[in-house]
Batch of 4 targets.
Target 1
Amino acid sequence: MKELELKYGCNPNQKPAAIYMEDGAELPLTVLNGKPGYINFMDALNSWQLVKALKKATGLPAAASFKHVSPAGAALGLPLTETEQKIYFADGLDTSPIARAYIKARGADRLCSYGDWAALSDVCDEPTARFLAMEVSDGIIAPGYTDEALAILKTKKKGNYNVVQIDPDYEPAPIERRNIYGITFQQGYNSFEINDALLDNIVTRNKQLPQQARHDLLLALLTLKYTQSNSVCYVKDGQTIGVGAGQQSRIHCTRLAGSKADNWMLRQHPKVLGLQFVDGIRRPNRDNAIDVYISDEYEDVLAEGVWQQTFKVKPEVLTQEEKKAWIATMSGVSLGSDAFFPFGDNVERARKSGVAYIAQPGGSIRDDNVIETADKYGMVMSFTGMRLFHH
């Protein structure tokens, strides 16, 4: 197919809308089910670039969960711990490497992944499709689908779930263009390859960068490459645990992503794992309830007596002291930034969420202060020399 007409653009009033190749060539993708929209395709193509690059950089299956042209989460297909199985609602499920990649990507920020676009680096198999069937999601892009997986996905959303297959060998033109306010912008496609060598310029006194941290930093940097700037990404054990996107201030980015990383950690607190939900509660309602429970407003909810709608037993409050102590146990976290840290305050905030490894471009007039702050906490920091803005 050379052109695919869409219902409308970003908003219902933006018509006509379509996707096509400027040179008149065939589109490198096929819609196998549903009717993806303009934003769906923006999510699909950005997320596909991310998982394809992750697979190339690490050799591992990769998945992403996208919302509004930025990843809510991204992950590699590594084994799930028992705790991860519980907090991602995957306990007892039959999984595969690509299924685990998506489960972890979705689990990074389950609240923000509600109604996401899923992307897989590998063929979608039955275990992945079965997990997706239980989640609220708008669509998926992958290089292929098994017959069993496609049959499952076609039953989702009353048969309207969006399923897109992309040619894994497709490479974009070296020049890309877009129109803004009737004016055409042109730039070279961002083909910069993020690989292990990018982490070799370690500027801190501590230069011990283990292989797992290298993988995590690559995951962080590749996630940032396809995240709306300014952006900061926290990663732990092959999955993002906090992504801060589209902030005007670097420190706000670091705080936003750090707060998401803290929430990811709090979901593993024994009190959270011990919550007793009412029978038949829907997965999104359970996610929302957990988010409220670990928030600062939960004591007010308890006072209002709303807990009976969600829990079998009135939960014991998770106190501020308990939260602080639990988050303080975080360690071995990696952090990437799409542009330099202008002040050491970003490092100070990152430390509070267990960050031990940092990759950022460098180039600030206060690099010395940033390095000094990292050295104060024994962190390892690499200067990549490459900005990763994405707009």
Note: The chain has a mean pLDDT of 94.
Target 2
Amino acid sequence: MHPRRLLHIIGAVVAAIGASMSVPAATSFIYREWSDGWLILLAAAITMVVGWYTRNRFERPSDLSMKEGFAVVGLTWIAMAIFGTLPFLLTGSISDFTNAIFETSAGFSTTGASIVTDLDAMPRGILMWRSMMQWLGGMGVIVLSIAVLPFLGTGGVALAQAESPGPTPDRLTPRFRETAKRLWYLYLGITILEAIFLLFGDMTLFEAINHSFTTLSTGGFGTDGGSLDNFSAYTQWVVIVFMILAGTSFALHYRGLKDPKEYLKSHEFKLYMGIMAAAALAFAIGTRNGGAIVDVIRDAVFTSVTLVTTTGYATADFGLWAPALQVIVFGLMFVGGMAGSTAGSVTPYRLGVLTGAARSDLRRVIHPRGVFVTRLGGDTIDDEVVETVQSFFLLYMFIFMTGTLLFAVIAEFNGGSFDIVSSGSAVASSLGNVGPALSQLGPSNTFIEVAPLNKYLLSFLMLVGRIEIYPILLLFTRELWRK
């Protein structure tokens, strides 16, 4: 481990984040928000200068070990969250650093949680920055860096394995840099396609761009305080379709463009679609007295899709639904989209492996001398993969339980009155990058009343969940920093 080598890469990514701030600055100028535009440009300049100085000051690595890959990913996402606060702080849109770091962490981690209570009062440039953070965080700034910054060299593979959502990155070409480029082109293409479809509805160009950014990233930030509830049925169905696409493996999309039968060959895709369909059916039955049948079905499908894909949009306040339905909502926070998508949480792949392993163990109890293998669909899963998935899930649940305990204790000592449902769902939602929680922190509420220390806790959990736990947690281990 050579920490100085990592600073070169971190600096380059920070500089790229600074350059991306020019887009919200330009947005402010277009809407004649002159003061905000110049202040966002100042934030961009500060971020770029710090990033480029760090990049040029330290040694350029020709290769990265796996240990260095994990370290640079964890440190880079922390740096992104810190520098991403500058547009909020300098413009005064969010004047408190604690609230700014919460909003920025929710942005880059593609978590739909927010402390903003009046989106209509936010400057257009800041709304664009919120959406851009989620779009950049969706496929992963690290993967983008691998695609466009050649100095990462063969270390790109180590970075991708450390950052990519899911068990392993799916290569489409022998060179990972070419794979990353193709996935980003696909990501960009689908984003543009959604914006075009949204323009045929009741969204303005500004709204269409922002929502396409936050749909494809499964982020959930919007431009309206009512989320998607204030838009037409057409717009909501368009968003449903593109949320499903965003929660599907982008590598599968790439192969599916050549042969649509690839979707039917993927057991994880069928499991992913099946979970959403079953949840939608349960929601539709449970809310069947909530209005016209077409509205009930649309809200049921929308809620199911937004929860499984961890997007965080809302057309109905599921925090007010019957307790049995809220149990399903809570359970869906632990599902997530496919491995290799922009969604967070556990993923259907891991859930499928866990189910297969449990089935094998049960059969082994009945037939002690039998030889059983874990299968996902028709594929045999290696024991090493099973053990890795089981360890990940155990660690995920340990973090969830510990986080819930800490949230409740901190809230109690700060005079808060959050019940166990609010506490547990807030932690599950943050760790799974979902966004809205239940009860007092449901879709109709924000996180503004959460205690400052709990905001830092949830911000930490958002980043931990977004980059698959290990890169952040390993930063606190002695073994990572040993030479």
Note: Residues 147-159 have pLDDT under 50 and may be disordered.
Target 3
Amino acid sequence: MMIEGQHRLILIGPQGSGKGTQAELLSVYLQVPTISTGQLCRSEIAHGTELGKQIENFVKNGELVPDEIITAMLKKRISDYDAQDGFIIDGFPRTVAQAEEAQSWLHPTKVIVLEINDRVAVQRMTSRRACTQCRFKTTAEYVAKHGDECPRCFGKIIQRQDDLPEAIQKRLDMYHLVTQPVIEFYKKTDEMERFNGALSIPLVFMEIAHVL
């Protein structure tokens, strides 16, 4: 189905809310790229650029990558040819300061908020498993039934350290402290839409698609 007009979407939600999954589905539906600030950082590091070296140093020291670096990467990415008809951003803005600074250049058409409580988020994320090589994502139930060999690349499927309960709760606490206020910031606009992220993936997708 062709979608008319430009869609500049921001997805906000805690870990386990299904942001990444919905971003992938919406990317196919709207025929626009998904842009993850985390992936942009990883790409710079993997390519060994000067910017990547700076980012890697911040990460190694346990520090947040400065807003000016994140903003510069994002501005460059949304100026690429494939983003001229729109884009979906996952992972930005993470702070009110980023949201305020982006007002002059980002101009989202919709801010999609996926809501989920911490208990469900922890349940979902502790069940997650991923391939160490191709990042194929699955669940603990799948591994119990089919073993830990990846069906795509035959690598090993594991539970990542950041999907352990203690690590998940720390990330959720940080989300509530730092990113939750961004939702309050966007409440002042007409672009924000809230969705129940605890519902099934197809149902959440259909509800989002309905408002676009």
Note: The longest strand covers residues 7-12.
Target 4
Amino acid sequence: MKKLLFSFALLVCLSILVCACAQQPQTHTLPYILHFGPQGFQDFAKYNLGQVDHHPVASFRELDFSPPNLGQIQIENGASSLVIDHVFSVLGTSFHQEDGIEGMMINAGLNKEEFVTPNQAYQGYVNLMQRVNKAGWKLYIAEYNPRISKEDNFRYLMEWGYVLDPSYIFSYEEWKKVISTSVGNSFGYRLYANGLLLNISIEQKKVTEDGKEQYLVRYSFDTIRYDYRNSMSDIANNVDPYSMSAEELRQAFEKEEKRKKESRAMDEQEARAQGYRIDEHYVGPDVWQYVK
């Protein structure tokens, strides 16, 4: 009888343990790997952490993380794959079901801790930019923007808020000056690699009485295919480039490229008049291979 009672008690304990384990959220070894394109849909579904929100013109996928268990995301992009630490949230966007995920917005901390010393913040910035450069992300100047020379990096940053030379790592003194004197205590980078565009914004949100600093880093990814086709709809009299024939798309693309080059020429003339130097040797990505 005692044996029977012991066996029954053991069975009850095992049943409770199994139920408790089944109710625990799924754990995952970092990083969370996210792709663009149709694979991106599968990635967000696999991790089962967020929601899917469908709208008439777009659908959104979410991943959210709460301190102290912040996320680590790897944006899969071949040799230019980028690991992002201290992630609060990821929003994946799709405007065309057949193209899958076309954009991602990621909010993250500069450091693991919310409030850090100035030296820790600076080291977080250095680590971030070393990682970006190691992954091969390059300066992106849109074809309608002036090709300001990297020699005017600091002047352009102070006036426009963007860094022209992502390979240049600020010294600690330069970093403090940039953060304290830039508009909104923030600055950014416009980059590209392997069919993706990336805007990075580093913003100081708060400084405490004891000198600790709080930062937010925003990463905005878009596929070149989406970015360029979206801009082409206006030049094509609001005709959806996704519904064009191959020849119509080529003609619309060439017309848009001509308009952008004319706009750049005018802006570069104005920039020269303001004393800026122009980098006529700048070469951006070959976008047609992604647009067609």
Note: Helices lie at 2-23, 38-47, 118-134, 153-160, 172-181, 224-235, 246-273, 288-291.
